[in-house]
Automatic annotation (TrEMBL):
Protein name: Tetratricopeptide repeat-containing protein
Native species: Dyadobacter psychrophilus
Alphabetized Gene3D superfamilies for the sequence: 1.20.5.1930, Histidine kinase-like ATPase, C-terminal domain, Tetratricopeptide repeat domain
Origin superkingdom: Bacteria
Keyword Transmembrane annotated: yes
Any one Gene Ontology molecular-function term assigned to this protein's record: phosphorelay sensor kinase activity
Alphabetical list of PANTHER family matching this protein: NITRATE/NITRITE SENSOR PROTEIN NARX-RELATED (PTHR24421)
A Pfam entry, by short name: HATPase_c
A GO cellular component annotation in the UniProt record: membrane
Segment forming the signal sequence: 1-17
Domain Histidine kinase: 553-640
């Protein structure tokens, strides 16, 4: 009988759900709608049941697949295949498992899910291991490892290395297998992933057993059992029990070996794991043989043979036919022994024939694959043509939309420009009207001032001279003399008031000597009244400005200072007039009570409106800064 032990079970995407979450998962299934959340809950509960009952786990996976198909939920379809193949492998249905794993790979590619692509490659490799295609298995495992290394996801590498090692182990390359499994254990220990660690330890133990390094195998199986029991993973507990059975048999501790083997067999049957059940039966078969219990050995062989035949486990059937023929010969059942020996011979020969068939099938598969690839290329070209047409239509639509937007924008801009031109014309019209009014006002002021000074002033002065000459030639009573004198005094006052009004309307100083002299006189006149102390400063006025500009600036100062006298309750004011090149700035400041500048918009007073109108007349800028109780500053800037 052969002593080689083939690793019991490989899987990649298995996720362990703890029993304490079972109620929560069932509640989620009951309360969720028929949506993707329910799909994921079905998968999660199926994973939980894998350690308890494979049939029940499979039912929940199938429910997840049915709902995923209904919802067209790609991730759900992928998860179903990745998990359900695990059950198929346990049941020995390796062809079906490979088919689903290849489908999961295509789904992952369609979803462009790089991680799931790596996982499906590893699962395809595992299916090839079960089917004895070790070369293909190693190729897929290496592709999966390359994928995860490219993604920088080293947490997946330990499982891949253990799987590659198991593939070499199935090909009886035990030393090469040991290298990969030890590398996997080295990477897994720092990760503190108990499930992965239990998987690696039980696999590494099988490698030590095949190399007949039983003590080292005993150590890793014992550690693996402790880890598996801690996380309550029945699968790895069974693998550890089976492994401890084999290594204790190798160490000639047959009673201990039998105890572990029976524990593993009982637990494997409870979980419905026929693959592990068969492995435990074979381990006990060898223990019974070494214990000189041929009947018991034959019993275990029959039970293992029944499982292998039911699940078409060809590799195991060859060995079991040979083993059972030996058992029957011991019982002197030579006819039965002959029959099973013939089955062994036929199957062994058929395996050789199967190799040829396999090659032919691979050639046929490659041909069909090439044909499908040609169809895919054709479909891709058609798809590309359709996409080009669609993109062209989209581009045309985008261009049309852009043109429409530009036309609309152009119309809107023209409309806005036209509105601005109308507004500008209205403003210019208003400005011309204002300028005409101001010019008319100044001309009228000048005329009235001249008429008052030259006409009425001359007449009053003549009357005064006449009266003075009468006073010297006529003797009046004392009382009449006093009245006459008082009339002369009133006449003097009238002449002075007339001159003051004429001067205010058009100061003679402004006309004769210019703006600076006129403002100095005006400021001194206000200061001499005692109501407000006004200081005047100027810079850069070596040459006079145009007379029309001087008049407007004088009226602005006049208006601003009159406002200070009326409303500011100030004690001091300052007028600054500066000229730098063609830029002229006028500043009038006071220390009065100030006001809220925003109130000017609703104010009914004409003072500031007159100032603004005169500044606009000069195309200048007016800036008013004032804060209650902190005074006021008015800045006028013009270009001459």
């Amino acid at each position: 009988m052969k002593l080689v032990y083939k690793t019991a079970l490989l899987f990649f995407l298995y996720v362990h759900a703890s029993a304490q979450n079972a109620d929560a998962i069932l509640k989620k299934i009951r309360e969720s709608k028929e949506d993707t959340n329910r799909v994921l809950a079905y998968i999660e509960y199926g994973q939980l049941l894998e350690n308890q009952n494979l049939d029940s786990a499979g039912k929940y996976y199938l429910k997840a697949e049915a709902l995923s198909q209904k919802l067209n939920y790609g991730i759900g379809k992928f998860k179903f295949r990745s998990n359900y193949t695990y059950i198929l492998n346990l049941q020995g249905k390796f062809d079906q498992g490979l088919k689903l794993n290849k489908e999961s790979f295509e789904i992952a590619r369609e979803l462009k899910h790089e991680v799931n692509i790596g996982k499906s490659l590893a699962n395809i490799a595992t299916s090839h291991v079960y089917m004895g295609n070790f070369t293909e298995a190693i190729k897929y495992y290496q592709r999966s490892a390359d994928q995860f290394e490219k993604l920088g996801m080293k947490e997946f590498l330990p499982r891949l290395y253990i799987s590659i090692g198991s593939a070499f182990e199935h090909a009886n390359l035990f030393n090469k297998s040991l290298v990969y499994k030890q590398k996997a254990l080295q990477l897994a220990r720092p990760m503190k992933d108990s499930l992965t660690l239990a998987d690696i330890l039980t696999n590494l133990g099988g490698c030590y057993f095949n190399l007949k390094r039983y003590k080292e195998g005993l150590a890793v199986y014992t550690e693996g059992l402790a880890v598996a029991q801690k996380i309550k993973s029945d699968i790895f507990v069974v693998q550890a029990y089976g492994g401890l059975c084999r290594v204790n048999r190798g160490l000639k501790k047959l009673d201990v070996a039998r105890e572990y083997g029976e524990k593993g067999l009982d637990l494997a049957r409870k979980t419905g794991n026929v693959f592990l059940e068969m492995e435990c039966l074979r381990a006990l078969m060898f223990v019974a043989e070494d214990s000189n219990q041929p009947e018991l050995s034959a019993k275990y062989t029959r039970e293992a043979l029944k499982i292998a035949e039911a699940n078409e486990m060809t590799d195991h059937l060859v060995e079991l036919y040979e083993d059972y023929a030996t058992d029957l010969a011991r019982e002197n059942n030579y006819k039965g022994a002959y029959d099973y020996l013939m089955k062994y011979t036929i199957m062994n020969d058929s395996i050789q024939g199967l190799d040829i068939q396999k090659q032919l099938q691979e050639l046929d598969t490659k041909y069909l694959t090439a044909q499908k690839e040609k169809q895919i290329v054709t479909l891709e070209k058609e798809k590309q043509t359709r996409n080009t047409l669609i993109y062209s239509l989209i581009a045309g639509l985008v261009v049309f939309i852009l043109i429409a937007v530009l036309v609309y924008r152009n119309i809107a801009i023209r409309k806005r420009i036209a509105e601005q031109e109308v507004l500008q014309l209205q403003q210019e019209k208003q400005l011309v009207a204002t300028n005409s009014i101001l010019k008319g006002q100044e001309e009228e002021r000048t005329r009235v001032a001249r008429d008052l000074h030259d006409g009425l002033g001359g007449l009053l002065s003549g009357i005064k001279l006449t009266l003075n000459s009468v006073k010297g030639n006529v003797i009046l009573p004392e009382e009449s003399a006093m009245t006459f004198t008082r009339a002369l005094t009133q006449l003097d006052g009238a002449i002075s008031e007339m001159r003051r009004v004429a001067h205010s309307m058009m100061p003679e100083t402004l006309v004769r000597f210019g703006l600076i002299e006129a403002l100095n006189d005006f400021c001194e006149g206000i200061s001499s009244s005692g109501q407000l102390k006004v200081t005047m400063q100027n810079f850069g006025f070596e040459e006079r400005l145009d007379s029309s500009i001087e008049i407007v600036l004088y009226r602005v100062v006049q208006e601003l200072l009159n406002n200070v006298l009326k409303y500011a309750e100030a004690t001091e004011a300052q007028v600054q007039l500066t000229r730098v090149g063609s830029n002229v700035s006028l500043t009038v400041e006071d220390n009065g009570k100030g006001f809220d500048v925003n109130s000017l918009e609703t104010s009914k007073g004409a003072g500031f409106r007159n100032v603004q109108a005169r500044v606009d007349y000069l195309n200048g800028k007016l800036d008013i800064q004032s804060t209650p109780e902190e005074g006021t500053s008015v800045l006028v800037e013009i270009v001459v």
